[in-house]
Amino acid sequence: MLLEVKDIHVHYGKIAALKGISVEVNEGEIVTLIGANGAGKTTTLKTISGLRGLTSGRIIFDGQDISKMPGHKRVVAGLGQAPEGRGIFPGMTVHDNLLMGAYARTTNSSKELAEAYELFPRLAERRDQAAGTMSGGEQQMLAIGRALMAKPKVLLLDEPSMGLAPLLVQQIFSIIEEINRRGTTVLLVEQNAQQALKLAHRAYVLETGKVVKSAPAAELLDDPDVQAAYLGGGMGHEVPGQAGQAAPEERA
Amino acid sequence: MNQKTLQRGNPVSRFRNQLGHFGDVMHDRWMNAPGWQRWIVYIALIVAALLLPSESIGSFMSPDTDWASILFFPIGTFVLLAIGLNVVVGQAGLLDLGFVAFYAVGGYAMALLGTRMGWNFWLIMIVGIGICALSGIILGAPTLRLRGDYLAIVTLGFGEIIRITARNTDEIGGPNGIRGIPHPPSIEGGPVIGDIEIFKYGVLYPQPYYYLLVALAVIVIILVKRWEKSRVGRSWAAIREDEDAAEVMGVPTFRFKMLAFAIGASIGGAMGVLWAAKSISINPNDFQFMLSATILAAVVMGGAGNLPGVILGAFLVAWLPERFRGLQEYRMLIFGAVLVALMIFRPEGLLPSRQRKAELKEGSGGMGTLGAEVPGPESRGEEVASK
């Protein structure tokens, strides 16, 4: 097992954001965490990448306990993250952003740089443009490309589809699949459960800081509860406060 | 920027765009200038700085006060303090409202070590810089976990703590401060510029101190510029633009923020040492919050993060009130009006760097929003809580 999150609890002040989350990621997998707003998906990812301290529990990566390791050292250990939303450096050019991705490396990164431009030809076109002036989709591509520059063993992706047009979401997801095929393990946090479940091998469903379900992604796609809550389906299931209850049973 | 965008909008924004465009063109020309041309400009600037205290310039620049005196304080002092604060605010993006504290620590180091221990100015300068770097780290270690406006509040508190502690500690003179601070050791028969021996430090002439300040400024500018271009500078830029992203890129953010604080504090402290050595006596009221605020205004107005801009901003903030001293109380009114006009026409500062402009547009960059990071419609509660 490459990454193992063992029963972590995280608090924002006195408020518990995570109440005992356990997640396992095996080498070569795409694992996704799905759930509604405030379920703790982003917090889980931030805790794994070291931006948030944990109250209790352990994170084991590559056989090493990294619970207390500062975030910048986790990058060297092999955890790469594309932060949520526009986690790029807006004032730097696209090229400088990518070079920042290789900040922690001591070895030559020209191969990864070429690969990033090859995966995202759009970035090559905008090489010398200030990253903050690009569209949301381009910024997302940059964030992923930049995370790959560190040559991570596990790539942590936080809502890559957020605020993007459906066509662009398709494109980003197919690139994530390609990245995985080339050997990078992916841990994906998504609100777009439909897309995420189609892409991932396994999935965890989070609700108010707890894992309520974990199964192979394909199974969850057919799971009536998950359909009702996250996929806009599930006639006959009473899930108060969820949109799309009246939606037909069939999936797109 | 093409011709169309330059012509768009009302006259005010058109003027702004054209001004910005002109700045970009000049900047590009400078960036493409060959090395020897730049060196000529550098040397010309230093020569100009050395000739600046002459009477003929002074009669226009400050008809009401002694030009050479105000060149040292406030102008020169503000410039150096602004360069120091720019490392913290402009480069690392940490809003520091208590920068005067380090200036005070430097001043008191000079005063105490000079009067009690009888140390030499040069020795105190080195020790003072060390003490200030240390005080920067002492302030930074517990507070740099905070961000934006919270950090600003804590640094503001620190500035006040230093001043009030000095006022209430009788061992260091209390409210009366310290008198009889020694001057730097003079060298007799040194070179002469305009009837004044430049290495003879006394009470009578401010020029020798001004030359010392120019020398200090040149050293500081070279160092700061080198840091800016190095890995350190890139780390600061990353922290300024997005601290979390910087951390997950492998930048040891906490350590680099401490370094920015220590370097900024050292520069402020060095200026404090020099200033105390000239003024003979210091007291806690020399280190008011207003000074921190004014220096910050200079940095923001000049164009935070861009060294020439910051120097220009500090010069204007120090010089304008002196130039219009003849107008008495109205000069502050004019000064305020100029600041307001600047923020309307050039909210990014007089000479902003291109990078800062892009950051400002995006609404990030720490100081870009002056720490006031307002949650947008798309952000969620937890993001805001972590800021």
Short description:
The complex is a heterodimer of chains A (252) and B (387). Chain A is an alpha/beta fold and 252 residues long. Chain A contains ten helices and ten strands.
Question: Can you walk through the features of this model?
Answer:
- The complex is a heterodimer of chains A (252) and B (387).
- By secondary structure, chain A is α/β, with parallel strands linked by helices.
- Chain A has a domain at 1-78 and 155-160 and 185-252: P-loop containing nucleotide triphosphate hydrolases (Rossmann fold, 3-Layer(aba) Sandwich).
- Chain A is built from 10 helices and 10 strands.
- In chain A, helix 3 runs parallel beside helix 6.
- The longest helix of chain A is centred in the last third of the chain and has 16 residues, at 166-181.
- Chain A is globular and about 45 Å long.
- Chain A starts with a strand and ends in a 22-residue tail after the last helix.
- Mean pLDDT of chain A is 89; it is low at 236-252.
- The two termini of chain B are 34 Å apart.
- Chain B has 17 helices and 2 strands.
- In chain B, strand 1 (192-193) and strand 2 form a beta hairpin.
- By secondary structure, chain B is mainly α.
- Chain B has helices at residues 3-7, 11-32, 35-51, 55-61, 67-91, 100-116, 121-143, 148-168, 207-229, 231-241, 243-248, 253-279, 289-302, 307-323, 330-345, 354-362, 381-386, and strands at 192-193, 196-197.
- Chain B has a domain at 68-288.
- The radius of gyration of chain B is 21 Å and the shape is globular.
- A two-stranded antiparallel ribbon of chain B has the order 1-2.
